[in-house]
Amino acid sequence: MNQPSVEWSDEEWSAFGAWLRSMLRSETVTVTFTKSDGTERVMRCTLQPSVLPPVTVKEGVTRKSPTSSIAVWDLDVAGWRSFTLRSVRSVQLELGA
What we know:
Mean pLDDT: 88
Structural class: alpha+beta
Shape: globular
Number of helices: 1
Largest sheet: 5 strands, antiparallel
Order of helices and strands: HEEEEE
Low-confidence stretches: none
Distance between the termini: 20 Å
Strand content: 25-35%
Number of strands: 5
């Protein structure tokens, strides 16, 4: 997978998002992205079920599945964080971590 590019089409961003979500479910991923205030952030994160905390389900609450952002477990602060897909500048996989 190539590094993200602002020149990508919507279809390429969609494919990148699907690939990144897949990698997050199985690996530790270091994502570098631009925050909304313009600063750069580097985050080690994952969506591996064995690492995530238990989820409390609230009745009557329905969550939409966002397509433009990804919620992840930040391994360094042990908390949920999110980033906008199109703000991603680079991705590094920690295979087997």
